[in-house]
Write a structure and sequence with these properties.
CATH class: Alpha Beta
Shape: globular
Number of domains: 1
CATH superfamily: Alpha/Beta hydrolase fold, catalytic domain
Structural class: alpha/beta
Number of strands: 8
Strand order of the largest sheet: 1-2-4-3-5-6-7-8
Helix content: 40-55%
Number of helices: 14
Distance between the termini: 50 Å
Length: about 325
């Protein structure tokens, strides 16, 4: 079975390369300083946390007693929240961060990517910024980190917003090609030097309900930040170390006010997972956006952030 999985991964990579050519697909690591001019413009800053220079943006009124911390998903970056931040920062302090192993923050010093490592990181960032308690919102793997932070550090979390969040064991209807290949360690030597831009485009299209909304700049962002030195190996390790459903029994212990947002066209973490979260988190609210995919906050920020604003106003 393992040999078949590797063979299938090699075949998928060969097909991807055949479409663009090896020369076009040649993509060695890029030093972070070569990426900052485009992807770390103001108000970006880099702060020292857990041995890393962490890329984050901290916007909105500093006297907000309940800041909002936004956590992106696998292979994304803090830029995925641009639309939400634009709508929220007038009234709320909004903090978003490139999580370890992704974006411009890059890999952890010790190569650890377990969920407890990530929840500790979230609290360490809050400590660094002087935030005692926050609304934690997360998408996909970031949603997993969000609710696990509420379990591990309940005094630091006031409310939760879970956007197509991971947490339960699930069967995907469709998995982005880049994720499939990253879960085959034997391909690591190849994937560390080759990355067809077309493969990233295919992966992003896979998580949108309406792929026509995808722009060349959006593909540039996912592609270039994947090439940040260390990120590709970190992705492999993240999949190896953080298994789906690992802590799902803890979800029932969550008592924080919770809003669950889901894209009805999510083929990566299907919408029945939203029903499980609503069942297990007492008093939680669910908003489903039928036409959107796995990243509804990015695909349609205006509609999805309106649900967040209503939730915050009522709690």
């Amino acid at each position: 079975m393992k040999a078949l999985k590797i063979a299938g991964g090699v075949l998928a990579l060969v097909v991807a390369l055949a479409g663009v050519g090896v020369v076009t697909a040649w993509a060695p690591d890029r030093a972070p300083e070569t990426l900052t001019a485009r992807w770390a413009q103001a108000p970006s800053q880099f702060v020292a946390v857990d041995g890393m220079q962490v890329h984050l943006r901290d916007e909105g009124p500093r006297d907000d007693p309940q800041p909002i911390v936004l956590l992106h998903g696998t292979s994304a970056s803090l830029h995925t929240w641009d639309g939400w931040v634009a709508a929220l920062k007038g009234q709320h302090r909004v903090i978003r961060v490139d999580m370890p192993g992704f974006g411009l923050t890059g890999p952890t010093p010790d190569g650890q990517y377990t969920l407890p490592v990530y929840t500790h990181f979230v609290v360490a960032v809050m400590d660094k910024l002087g935030v005692k308690q926050a609304v934690i919102a997360g998408n996909s793997f970031g949603g997993n980190i969000a609710w696990k932070t509420a379990v591990d550090y309940p005094d630091r979390v006031s409310k939760l917003v879970l956007v197509d969040a991971a947490g339960y064991s699930y069967q995907s209807k469709s998995i982005p090609l880049a994720f499939k290949l990253a879960q085959i360690p034997a391909l690591r030597p190849i994937m560390g030097k080759l990355l067809p831009r077309r493969m990233i485009e295919s992966s992003v299209r896979n998580v949108y309900g309406d792929p026509s909304k995808i722009t060349p700049e959006l593909i540039d962002r996912y592609y270039e930040l994947t090439l940040r030195a260390g990120n590709r190996d970190a992705l492999v390790q993240r999949f190896l170390q953080s298994k789906s459903g690992e802590f799902e029994d803890q979800i029932k212990t969550i008592t924080k006010p919770t809003l669950i947002i889901w894209g009805g066209q999510d083929n990566l973490i299907p919408p029945d997972n939203a029903d499980k979260f609503q069942r297990d988190i007492q008093g939680s609210r669910l908003a489903v956006f039928d036409a959107l995919g796995h990243v509804p906050h990015e695909e349609d920020p205006a509609s999805t952030v309106a649900a967040v604003q209503a939730f915050l106003d009522q709690h």
